[in-house]
């Protein structure tokens, strides 16, 4: 069931939160052995459902009453392990909840599980989880994308209607595309990151996932908004559900020339074409726009990303947090703990980040990446002078096979070619299910002006209505 249907049935007294949560747990029990979307079930889920029933009986208004949700395992949950998909934090039990978790509780949602992810949100396939990969519900021989692959797979498999992920360079949008669900990354600062484990702080955002736009809007309204505990938080009232009332007539959508030329597979080009013709019929106007510096986005991203990772992950030193492997002295303890606690991709990024920040290379790499970042932002601003929204693929190809890209880190990084510029610029974007290549889902990406996140929902809603939601459905397993 969709979240919207669950809320309706519970509010009308037809269904109860406990029944809904039991059904979700049952579906998880059936499918989890094949999909492995989750790292840990919440043992309190049924108790939480009962608490929601009591609050409903008292007449509380709960916008997500009884809706089961999974959240990515880098979002802190009080009393429930938060591993970041890493051995380093395998036993870490947060003493507090992230702001987004508090907001979900307040809204009456029920956390059923923590979702699998690439270790510390580095990767594009969920193959880098220390707890084993997640499988794509549309094809169990293929990856679900990453790093929020567990969240996307859980929604696509119908275990839950809603999920939270995080998006540093595409980790909500790319797995959403590969699993055929909606994935939304807001403007930097619209969703609180208090209690979200940092990967690369100038890029990280929490994002929302769902199988319908109404559900995505409901969830986005609940988790967005100003948070005094996050110094990067913005004051902007969320109006996602309200945006679904607006018409797409008169919107100008810019097709990004460079993104079309980057070697997309046929199903991706077909989905873009479909999106365009459907939206034209809905009264949107299309123009071609150019982002000349888009070519530099991937290089700039992987420098900024690794630089910030090397600094953020310095805190895992075998002393303060996480795994501790005792050795002869403190330096050896630190080295041993980091060697055994972190997987190869995390180690590679710490090394790369340390290198690009070292005094001899700082200007050659990090300094240059910051200049490229400013140019990419300026390119986007120029494109937004001509269009309300921009259209690109979310990923150049649909879900790939296990092992296809793990041997060559660069080929894995190339999977992010369409998504990383958005994080460098801090603008909002959504992956919209828009077709299939064979049996594999394909998404297109709509990019919005900063703080105009709701406009993306207006356009996506017009597409969903016109196509009757044909491209976002539960995978048949
Ligand atoms: N795939 C990108 C990376 O590996 C993005 C990851 C993310 O958004 N967390 O950095």
Describe the 3D structure.
This protein has 477 residues and is of the alpha/beta class. The chain has a domain at 3-247 and 462-467: Amidase signature (AS) domain (Amidase signature (AS) enzymes, Alpha-Beta Complex), CATH 3.90.1300. Helices cover 39% and strands 13% of the residues. The protein is built from 17 helices and eleven strands. The relative contact order is 0.14. It binds glutamine (GLN). The site of glutamine (GLN) has 13 residues, from loops.
List keywords for this structure.
Amidase signature (AS) enzymes; eleven-stranded mixed sheet; 477 residues; alpha/beta; binds glutamine; 17 helices; globular; 11 strands
Summarize the helices and strands and which ones pair or pack.
Layout: H1 3-11, H2 17-35, E1 38-41, H3 45-57, E2 68-72, H4 99-106, E3 110-115, H5 149-156, E4 162-167, H6 173-179, E5 182-185, E6 205-210, H7 213-223, H8 240-243, E7 252-256, H9 257-260, H10 266-281, E8 285-289, H11 297-312, H12 330-341, H13 344-357, H14 363-384, E9 389-393, H15 409-413, H16 420-425, E10 429-437, E11 440-448, H17 453-466
Parallel strand pairs: 2-3, 2-4, 7-8, 7-9
Antiparallel strand pairs: 1-3, 4-6, 5-6, 5-10, 9-11, 10-11
């Amino acid at each position: 069931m969709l979240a919207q249907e669950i809320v309706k049935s519970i509010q009308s007294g037809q269904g109860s939160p406990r029944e809904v949560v039991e059904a979700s747990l049952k579906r998880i029990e059936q499918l989890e052995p094949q999909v492995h979307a989750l790292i840990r079930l919440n043992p309190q889920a049924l108790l939480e459902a009962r608490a929601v029933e009591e609050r409903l009986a008292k007449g509380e208004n709960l916008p997500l009453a009884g809706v089961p949700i999974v959240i990515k395992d880098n979002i802190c949950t009080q009393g429930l392990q938060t591993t970041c998909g890493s051995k380093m934090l395998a036993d870490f039990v947060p003493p507090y909840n992230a702001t987004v978790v508090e907001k979900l509780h307040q809204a009456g949602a029920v956390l059923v599980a923590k979702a699998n992810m690439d270790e510390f949100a580095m990767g594009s396939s969920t193959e880098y989880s220390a707890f084993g990969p997640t499988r794509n519900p549309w094809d169990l021989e293929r990856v679900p994308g990453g790093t929020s692959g567990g969240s996307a797979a859980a929604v696509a498999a119908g275990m839950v209607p809603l999920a939270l992920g995080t998006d540093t360079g595409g980790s909500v949008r790319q797995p959403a595309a590969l699993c055929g669900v909606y994935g939304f990354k807001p403007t930097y600062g619209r969703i609180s990151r208090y209690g979200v484990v940092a990967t690369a702080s100038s890029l990280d955002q929490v994002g929302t996932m769902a199988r319908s736009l109404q559900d995505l809007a409901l969830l986005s309204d609940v988790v967005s908004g100003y948070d005094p505990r996050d110094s990067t938080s913005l004051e902007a009232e969320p109006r996602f559900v309200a945006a679904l009332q607006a018409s797409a007539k008169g919107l100008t959508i810019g097709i990004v020339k460079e993104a079309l030329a980057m070697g997309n597979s046929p199903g991706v080009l077909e989905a873009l074409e479909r999106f365009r013709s459907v939206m034209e019929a809905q009264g949107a106007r299309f123009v071609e726009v150019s982002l000349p510096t888009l070519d530099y986005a991937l290089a700039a991203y992987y420098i900024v990303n690794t630089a910030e990772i090397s600094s953020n992950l310095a805190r895992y030193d075998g002393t303060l947090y996480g795994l501790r492997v005792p050795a002869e002295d403190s330096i050896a303890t630190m080295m041993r703990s980091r060697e055994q606690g972190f997987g190869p991709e995390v180690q590679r990024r710490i090394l790369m980040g340390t290198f690009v920040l070292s005094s001899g290379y700082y200007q050659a790499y990090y300094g240059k990446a910051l200049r490229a970042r400013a140019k990419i932002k300026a390119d986007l601003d120029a494109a937004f002078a001509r269009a309300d929204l921009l259209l690109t693929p979310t990923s150049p190809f649909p879900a790939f096979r296990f092992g296809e890209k793990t041997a060559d880190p660069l080929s894995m990084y190339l999977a992010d070619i369409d998504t990383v510029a958005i994080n460098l610029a801090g603008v909002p974007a959504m992956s919209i299910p828009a077709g299939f290549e064979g049996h594999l889902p394909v998404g297109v990406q709509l990019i919005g002006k900063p703080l105009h996140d709701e406009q993306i929902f207006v356009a996506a809603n017009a597409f969903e209505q016109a196509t009757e939601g044909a491209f976002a459905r539960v995978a048949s397993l």
